[in-house]
Amino acid sequence: MSLRRVSVVRGTQRILSDIDLDVQRGEFVAIRGQSGSGKSTLLNVIGLLDRPTSGTVSFSGEDVGDMSDRQRSGIRAQCIGFVFQKFHLLHNRTALENVALGNLYIGASSSARLAEAEELLTRIALGHRMDALPATLSGGEQQRVALARARPRSHGISRHPPV
């Protein structure tokens, strides 16, 4: 992931100004700053959720600026994992169903999505809680479900390696 001279303007307010950033595959990066300093906006640009007002965003060496929303969604589904501060689990879906949703956008069949979700939950010691609704899970269990759901999926169909 590479950002070059990325700026984001909302109305008359400049949220980000001429950001340059490179994140290599497997690298861990912390984004810190005061409340209102643009951290969430930057994460949304990096995660291909938002487009910058100016500058370029590249993923695996490819400029994503002219990609359609569908193409950007494909990269997110296959290569980028999101874990939100409040987890954003669907309350009317089981742990298994929440994790399986992570594979929805790569075109995996329902049975393949559920099989992988079951394997992931077993690997993170939640095999016994697959049928539990989020409200019945502890905070730590909800966090593990969110992490399993966020795991980038490749299934061999992506040109873009997970970062």
In total, the number of domains comes to 2
Mean pLDDT: 87
Multimerization status: single chain
Strand content: 15-25%
Largest sheet composition: 4 strands, antiparallel
What structural class results from the helix and strand content?
alpha+beta
**CATH superfamily placement of the largest domain:** P-loop containing nucleotide triphosphate hydrolases
Please describe what this structure looks like.
This protein has 163 residues and is an alpha+beta fold. It has 2 domains: 2-79, P-loop containing nucleotide triphosphate hydrolases (Rossmann fold); 95-150, no CATH class. It has 5 helices and 4 strands, in the order E-E-H-E-E-H-H-H-H. The protein has helices spanning 39-46, 69-79, 95-100, 110-123, 139-150, and strands at residues 2-10, 13-22, 54-59, 62-63. Strands 2-1-3-4 form a 4-stranded antiparallel beta sheet, with helices on one face. Strand 1 and strand 2 (13-22) form a beta hairpin. It is globular, with a radius of gyration of 17 Å. The relative contact order is 0.16.
